[in-house]
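Re-running the complex after MR caught last week's input typo. The corrected sequence lines follow. Everything else is unchanged.
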Amino acid sequence: MTEKILLVDDEKDFLTVMSERMTARGMQVTTADSAQAALQEVESGTYDAIVLDLKMPGMDGIETLKAIKARNPTLQVILLTGHATLEKGVEAMKLGAMDFVEKPADLNVLTEKIKNAQARKMVLVAKQTEQKLKSILTTKGW
Amino acid sequence: MNAGPNRVGQSGLTYFGRTTASISHELKNALAIIKENAGLLDDYLQMADKGLPIDPARFKTVTGRIADQITRADGIIKNLNRFAHSVDEPVKAIDLNEIAALLNVLSQREAAMRQVTLQVCPEGATIPVTTAPYLLLTLLGRCLSICLQYMGSGKTLTVKVTRIPDGGRIEFEALDAARLAAAANFPGENETDLLNAVGAEYHLDGTLGCMAITLSNR
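Corrected-run output:
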């Protein structure tokens, strides 16, 4: 199954090359070069995973993560960070990030995390659907 | 114990840490792009091994991107080297234009993060002053950070270097410098110690929207 990815980074050259490599691995990639552009994409599209740079001009990765989660809590966010520290990782996880990867990222590791994100999102969406169905069954009197 | 020199040392260390952290992030970004482009070349080779035709122009594009990032990384390292050597001599004769140029390259990322355009306008001629170069850089970096913090995104911060009788002046034209300084309670104790350490004076012109550091060569 094709993974739908939103890749967010202010380095345009990074977006170009990552997008090409991920597309060659069968993923469907959309790119955004700012937090604002990413949030617009989140409003209009559905994604299995969002790969988000931690340090960006204007709204940084942590603020963007909070805004994404506020819009759609089922979205799975993988943070890209210049220096992966335990402290940063714990902070990101507390705010709802699924995982984090240190730059320069190993594409095989990132791909594995994206697949995990997709699986986790499917479980969350299935749970949501089940709850909706239960709610309908208990409130409707068929 | 005298708190002044301690605070000066701490301010210098803080500026050193903040600046090298910013430089290392920028280097990481360049390395990440180089790594992914090298990976893309590897992808092409694997495709060629499987008998898929690869347009040579694609290789040229990728190697061009790698060369660009190497040039970028080399520039970053050169700036880091200049920054490191600014502590070589505690006090020496310097050209204010050169310090402003170094401040410019070291602060571009910080300005970009605040979505502010940083523009440094040097004086045409050399402006020699004898001072503590690293501490002056720390003081100027502090002035610049305050301006960036309070001026808001989408604006341009102009740093102008001018010659004055017996010295030089560095101005930060931040539109509403009076508000900036009031909001940040600037200069505080740390900045006052730095001003004393480098033998400089601080001026604020609320009408012109400008904060300035003046150094005398007397």
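None of the earlier attempt is carried over here. Chain A has one domain: 4-139. Chain A has a mean pLDDT of 87.
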